[in-house]
Amino acid sequence: MIMKSYASHNQDIATQMDSLTRIVLMNPVLENVLVKASSLQLEHYYIGAGCVTQTVWNYLCGRPLNDGIKDLDFVYYDEDLSYDKEGEIIDRVRAAFGELPYQLDVKNQARVHLWYEDRYGYSIQPYRSLEAAINSWPTTSTAIGLRRTEDGT
Question: What is the pTM for the complete model shown?
């Protein structure tokens, strides 16, 4: 397998962010999700984890950008911890992105501590922010979240 030379690695953070954005926006699925997500009127959300990382690896390895992507993580932070509220958001996000070629995983990161012990065998403290939740993801290469800003960048 031949990997592309990518001159922006080990550069300043602005150059790395520009390169990441350029690569992600080449993936038409992720670009569509990033554009549509603003219509959901959620205050604090990110598209992240493996779908972003795999897109970059695919680009660098010269593979189709969606190759190997199994799901898209759509994470948000809402202090309303009710199951019903999370279900409402999940339904709204799924309705907006029902045409995805892979699964959609929607989670309120403010609620993770409520079910974490049952799934993983130990408890965690509630996350204080969405960024704190993303920073806790188990691999640094997937601990990333993207969204469009109000000015469209």
Answer: 0.87
